[in-house]
Amino acid sequence: MKNPVIQTFPLSSPWQTLDPFLFSVYHLDHFPKGNGAMGPDASLLKGRNLGSDFDPSTDWRMYHGQTIPGFPYHPHRGFETITIVNRGFCDHSDSLGAAGRFGQGDVQWMTAGRGVQHSEMFPLLNDDDENPLELFQIWLNLPKVGKFVDPHFKMLWNEDIPVLKEENATVKVVAGAYKNTTPIAPAPDSWAANPENEVAIWNIHVDANSEYVLPKANSSVNRVLYFYDGDEIHIADKKINPNFGIVLDPSEEVHIKSGGQKAHFMLLQGKPIGEPVAKYGPFVMNTQEEIQKAMEEYRLTQFGGWPWPHPDNVHEKDRGRFALYPDGKLIEK
Question: Which of 56, 188, 238, 322 is least buried, going by the fewest C-beta atoms within 10 A?
């Protein structure tokens, strides 16, 4: 049997990715009890660089938040964000007038296209116990023809996302068909919207002391498996420790033998877009000239401005999961 492992690499923050993905970040925060105002019931006066708190040695971080952890308003253009919140909650607000609170397995798919501002805050709703947060954010590129599509906001609710339970594993199918399991449709202008691009985002959990077989892809795609939690695994004759990425040969099945702990993976796969990528912070275009134009347009227009009262906008504490769309449609969960 051919060894399907092409390369392994240690995971940094953000994770390294291959075309068509731009990068992925994994947040695991053991937030303390809330203080009644959706912030942490802990002192922020010492040891935290508020506004830029990313210290990986701490149990939890404030990120760019000052009183509530998260990311106050910031722009995006030219790509998409797929945000998977396995634990905890995220409060979304954007310049389109869309808003939402999602978590507990929900996924938000947002196409920035020609430009949007949004905030992503992590309200600590529980004042009686800790508020753990586990979140993945994946940046998926748009091809040149899609860089200026209209922004789009879509919620994939946890109750609707297919979860396939196999003999030794559970697979959450966020994007891309898994065997005979069809996922919820992605955003309409996404690179993932065309099945020929074989974009897949699968959160895979393999039982301890067992074997799982990852099926091969149908075409020549870039395929990376991120081993983000567990103890050692074995693929073919190779031992791999947690916090490693694994570049795989898409034409081969992958037999994964887990160790004494449950093994947790994120798989990102897709046909390369194969175009030049120019990046500057939250702008992703094809040339540096286009980046300069995007920055100038943002300075002039703010991509529609900010219709919310605060840059770190959060919703009412007792509000449940919901999505308010730009056309005024409201879904409560």
Answer: 56
Position 123 pLDDT exceeds 90: yes
Give domain 5-34+75-306's CATH superfamily: Jelly Rolls (2.60.120.10)
Q: For 160, phi and psi rounded to 5 degrees?
A: -100, -15
Of 286, 329, 254, 304, the residue nearest 141 (C-alpha): 286
Q: Return the residue matching tokens 């609710």.
A: 157
Nearest to residue 114, comparing CAs of 153, 152, 72? Answer: 152
Q: How many residues does the chain have?
A: 333
Name the helix (H) or strand (E) containing 120. strand 116-121
Q: Give yes or no for residue 1 having a pLDDT over 80.
A: no
Residue 44 DSSP SS3:
coil
Find the DSSP H helices in 87-155: none
Residue 305 to residues 31, 75, 78, 322, Cα–Cα distance (Å): 31, 10, 18, 23
Residue 219 pLDDT? 80
Q: How far is the C-alpha of 5 from the C-alpha of 17, rounded, in Å?
A: 16
CA proximity to 139, closest of 160, 112, 114, 161: 112
Q: For residues 24 and 139, is the Cβ–Cβ distance under 8 A?
A: yes
The whole-angstrom separation of Cα 158 and Cα 307 is 28
* pLDDT range class, residue 47, cuts 50, 70, 90: confident
Distance CA 157, CA 109 (A): 11
**E strand or H helix that includes residue 138:** strand 131-141
CA atoms within a 13 Å half-sphere pointing along the CA-CB vector of 65: 24
